[in-house]
Write a structure and sequence with these properties.
Distance between the termini: 46 Å
Structural class: alpha+beta
Strand order of the largest sheet: 12-15-11-10-9-8-1-19
InterPro entries: Endo/exonu/phosph_ase_sf, Endo/exonuclease/phosphatase, Swc5/CFDP1/2
Radius of gyration: 22 Å
CATH topology of the largest domain: Deoxyribonuclease I, Chain A
Pfam family, one: Exo_endo_phos
Strand content: 25-35%
CATH architecture of the largest domain: 4-Layer Sandwich
CATH class of the largest domain: Alpha Beta
Low-confidence stretches: 6-16, 274-282
Protein name: Endonuclease/exonuclease/phosphatase domain-containing protein
Shape: globular
GO molecular function, one term: catalytic activity
Organism: Panstrongylus megistus
Number of domains: 2
Mean pLDDT: 84
C-alpha cells in the first residue's frame, strides 16, 4: 500500500531551485534513535535533498516527521535485518506524491516536479555475496517489475540507487550505453548480472561516466581498511539530467560505506509551498484491517464458557496485531547528541580520514 502526501490547501510559489540533489548510503543500521540523530546531524552540513538508505534494520513501515530538517520513511519486515528507506528535506514535503514499499530490499519514492512531470526514486539493498542465486534472482525480478510500472509514466524521470553488492569494473566498448570508461576493481559474477540487467532495462550506471581518482571512487572498505571497492551505484534511464556525481569522503557518520551523490538538472523551477500546510496521511485499507482482526481472532480457541476478561484480552490482542501490520505516521522530537558525543564523533571521523589517506 503506497503512502500518500495530502494538503489542506494548494498554495504554491515558484522556487528558484533548478536542481535536486539525491544520494544513497548504506548506513549499517538506524535501529537506535542515536544513530538516526547522528545521521541527521551529518546531513545538516550538506545540501542533499533526498538520501536513500540501506540496511536500516527497523521493522514495519513508518513515516516520521522529524524535529530536524527531514522526513524519515522506512520499511522493513523484521527488526535487525535488511530494511530500506529515505530521508527527505522538509522543503520537498509538498512535492512528495507517495512512498511505496516493494520489499525490505526495495522502496519507491514519487516526487512531483510540476507541469505533470515527476521524479521516481527507487532505493535498493541487494543481497550480499553470501546470499543464494535464488535470492538474487528474486531481487532483480522485483526490481524489474517496479521499473516496468514506472516506465509507463511517460513524464517521469527515473533514478535507481543503492548498495548493489556488485563489482562492475571498467566498461567495454560494446557496453558504452550502460557503462562508462571509469570504474574500480575487477568485475565479479554479481557485476555481470547487474550489467545484463541494465542492458535489458536500458539503464546507465552513473558512477562510471565521471572521472574520479581512486580515493574519490570507492564506496566500501573492509574492516581493516586494506580493501576498497565500488559496490554502491546510481542508475538512470535519463542520463541527460545528471549534472554532477561524487562520493563523499568526509561525511561525519560511521559506516564501512560512503555516500554516493548526484545532482539532477530540472527543466523548470520546482513548485514549493509558501506555508507549512502539509500533513502526511496514511491510506488505510479498511477492508484489509478488518480482515486481519478477524484472522487473528479466528486463530484463538474461543469457548462458550469463556469469561468476559479473557474474551476482552483476545479481542484487544487481535486488534493490536492487526495494527502492527499497517504503517504508522508519527511526529517525534529528535533527541540531541551531547556536546561530548559530537566531539567524539568529530574526532573519530578525523582519525578515520587520516587512516584512509595514509593507505591511498
Amino acid at each position: 500500500e503506497s503512502q500518500t502526501i495530502s494538503s489542506q490547501k494548494k498554495n504554491f510559489t515558484s522556487c528558484m531551485k533548478s536542481h535536486i540533489s539525491v544520494g544513497t548510503f548504506n548506513v549499517r543500521t538506524l535501529l537506535t534513535e542515536d544513530r538516526l540523530v547522528e545521521l541527521e546531524q551529518a546531513l545538516q552540513k550538506t545540501d542533499l535533498d533526498i538520501l536513500g538508505v540501506s540496511e536500516v534494520r527497523r521493522a514495519n513501515e513508518n513515516i516520521i516527521i522529524r524535529q530536524s530538517n527531514y522526513i524519515f520513511y522506512n520499511y522493513g519486515t523484521k527488526r535487525g535485518i535488511n530494511g530500506v528507506g529515505f530521508l527527505i528535506k522538509k522543503d520537498l514535503r509538498q512535492n512528495i506524491k507517495y512512498f511505496k514499499p516493494i520489499s525490505d530490499r526495495i522502496v519507491e519514492l514519487g516526487i512531483n516536479l510540476g507541469s505533470r512531470r515527476s521524479l521516481n526514486v527507487i532505493q535498493v539493498y541487494a543481497p550480499t555475496s553470501s546470499s543464494s542465486e535464488e535470492e538474487v534472482d528474486n531481487f532483480y525480478k522485483e526490481l524489474e517489475e517496479t521499473i516496468i510500472k514506472v516506465k509507463k509514466k511517460t513524464q517521469s524521470k527515473l533514478i535507481i540507487m543503492g548498495d548493489f553488492n556488485s563489482q562492475v569494473g571498467v566498461g567495454k566498448k560494446e557496453e558504452n550505453q550502460v557503462l562508462g570508461m571509469y570504474g574500480l576493481g575487477r568485475r565479479n559474477q554479481r557485476g555481470w548480472k547487474l550489467i545484463r540487467f541494465c542492458q535489458q532495462q536500458q539503464l546507465s550506471i552513473v558512477n562510471s561516466f565521471f572521472k574520479k581518482r581512486r580515493g574519490r571512487r570507492w564506496t566500501w572498505q573492509s574492516p581493516d581498511g586494506n580493501y576498497k571497492n565500488e559496490i554502491d551505484f546510481i542508475l538512470t534511464k535519463n542520463r541527460d539530467i545528471i549534472q554532477s556525481y561524487e562520493v563523499w569522503s568526509n561525511f561525519e557518520y560511521h559506516s564501512d560505506h560512503r555516500p554516493v551523490v548526484c545532482k539532477l538538472k530540472i527543466d523548470k523551477t520546482i513548485p514549493f509551498p509558501t506555508k507549512n500546510i502539509v500533513e502526511i496521511q496514511k491510506t488505510l485499507d479498511e477492508e484489509k484491517f478488518k480482515s486481519d482482526i478477524q484472522n487473528y481472532f479466528d486463530k484463538k480457541d474461543i469457548t462458550v464458557d469463556m469469561d468476559v476478561q479473557t474474551m476482552y484480552d483476545i479481542i484487544e490482542n487481535s486488534i493490536k496485531l492487526a495494527i502492527n501490520n499497517h504503517p504508522k505516521t508519527k511526529k517525534v522530537e529528535s533527541s540531541k547528541l551531547s556536546e561530548e558525543t559530537k566531539e567524539l564523533i568529530k574526532r573519530r571521523e578525523q582519525m578515520r580520514r587520516k587512516k584512509v589517506k595514509s593507505k591511498e
